[in-house]
Amino acid sequence: MTDQELIAHAAAMRSRAVAPYSHYQVGAALLGSNGKVYGGCNIEAAAYSVTLCAERAALACAVADGCTSFTRLAVIASGEGLCTPCGMCRQMLFEFAPELTVLCCYADQRSQAIPIAELLPFGFGGDRLPG
């Protein structure tokens, strides 16, 4: 799958976003090591803390399908500027795929490829926890 195809999938997911409060629609497309693409969109709630980001929605779909290894993610939003995952999404993505490449996009589908480790410097996974 090309980067442009992955970005187009993310853009299609963006159109499904439910963002009645922020009006900031986000779409994500996560490429599994199995070759499948898992899509997600943001889903807002009036109780903001339960809002689900597009990236974590895509990750949840992938894990539910049995895929836990990923190579690339495209994330795109309706707003101006470069769309990057939030801190919570960066942590979740890093734990599953510390070598992940994130295609951070502008609304017009231009993108910058940024390693997740650069987006989350000094990131860590469960191997650093006692137990």
Number of helices: 4
Give the overall pLDDT as a whole number.
Answer: 96
**Highest CATH level, the class:** Alpha Beta
Q: What is the number of independent domains? A: 1
Quaternary state of the chains = single chain
Helical fraction equals 25-40%
Integer-rounded radius of gyration: 14 Å
CATH architecture: 3-Layer(aba) Sandwich
Q: How many DSSP-defined strands?
A: 5
CATH superfamily: Cytidine Deaminase, domain 2
Secondary-structure topology with pairs:
Layout: H1 3-14, E1 26-32, E2 37-41, H2 54-64, E3 70-77, H3 87-96, E4 101-105, E5 111-115, H4 116-119
Parallel strand pairs: 3-4
Antiparallel strand pairs: 1-2, 1-3, 4-5
List keywords for this structure.
131 residues; alpha+beta; Cytidine Deaminase, domain 2; 4 helices
Task: Give a structural overview.
This protein has helices at about 5-15, 55-65, 85-95, 115-120; strands at about 25-30, 35-40, 70-75, 100-105, 110-115. The protein has one domain (about 5-120): 3-Layer(aba) Sandwich (Cytidine Deaminase, domain 2), CATH 3.40.140. It has a 5-stranded mixed sheet with strand order 2-1-3-4-5. By secondary structure, it is an alpha+beta fold. The chain is built from 4 helices and 5 strands. The mean pLDDT is about 95. The termini are far apart. The longest helix has 12 residues, at about 5-15. Helix content is about 30%, strand content about 25%. The radius of gyration is 14 Å and the shape is globular. Strand 1 and strand 2 form a beta hairpin.
